[in-house]
Amino acid sequence: MILDLFAGPGGWSRALHVLGTRDIGLEWDPWACKTRSAAEQLTIRTDVARYPTGPFVGRTHAVIASPPCQAWSMAGKRLGLLDQPLVHAAVEGLAAGRDTRERLLAACRDERSLLAAEPMRYLHALNTVGEPDWVAMEEVPDVLPLWKQYAAVLRGWGFSVWCGILNAADFGVPQTRKRAILLASRVRTAQPPTPTHSQLTEPESLFGPGRARWVSMAQALGWGATDRPVPTVCAGGGPEPFPSGSRKTLSDARKRGTWTPRPDGTVPQSRRDGAGREARHSTQETGAAGAEAAMFTAEAHRWSWSLRSNSQANATVRRLSEPAGTLFFGHRANECTWVAEPASPPAEDTDPSAVPEPIRITAQEAGLPQTFPADYPWAGNKGQQFSQIGNAVPPLLAGHLLAPHLGVRLDPDDFGLAA
Q1: In the chain, N or C terminus with fewer CB closer than 10 Å?
Q2: CA 96 to CA 265: how far, in whole Å?
Q3: 225 and 361 co-located in one domain
């Protein structure tokens, strides 16, 4: 089997499915488990730190691990950095068959920090019978020193190991998500995958094939490749407030005329209701209705839309013609919003003071830059869905990492992204 520790909602599992195989995931979060179940992925709901290793010894071909990143992430308090010496001590003990976790956990400032040592407990148990054949692990960049410690242990056990930082955008993911990666193998030379994309298009040369330009959010969302596509606003609006204390809802955005084409191909149609007020409804872009809708769409294109990663002053803001920044969602569920500014060059009759209100990103829109399919069955309420999306490994990046170990060729088109 392929054992997937901290399996989450299925980023690695989705990649394996596309590549023609599957794993068995260990995951604690109930909503991630429900998502995995709906996606027909094999799952044991359990605490990875408490589950025995015995059932896997003698039957495990590979180990995948993405320990929770909250203790280390830029989005949190980063207490994992303070706990790092304790985590290194735990890995050192587990690699030698000594379990010092209970004592070390009592000293940790964030109890989640020590979860990054858990893969070593499984790897040590499996190594007693010469397993696994290969290992793939992923975490936020600050965990790289820990991966280097793992690498030293694995090399002592006969593995070829590579570890370093990779940018997901270099592999066709429409998101500049940097991650610390460890790849190890007993049967082949471990090395990182060859990047397929770059920030600027690179033509073919004597040194090899060229690389395409990073995939933009516009391409991933199917909104066209210009810098002025328009974001989704769901027909039902939304009860949750926008960030920064603005208690505006999506229905307010519709009243301001910012309800704009959806990725599913429907576009707003402007018409008057019985009281003479302007009402907007979705319709397919055909016939007279399509012409009317096109007029409204042209109005929406007065604005250039960007994605703001959160409500903080230093938030990453990216135009739709660029990849998203790293998507993460804190305890307030979702602070990622589409924000508008007058298009450049602005239309003559554009009123800069009439800039539309921010519009919250939907779960579907957040999942697509992570390279999950649009119909991925996210379970739970909005907050639970966004939490899963932010914590997931982008399946396309996972596919690039896993394909060489599986001996198969990865076709990015299988992940449903625009060319």
Answers
A1: C
A2: 58
A3: yes
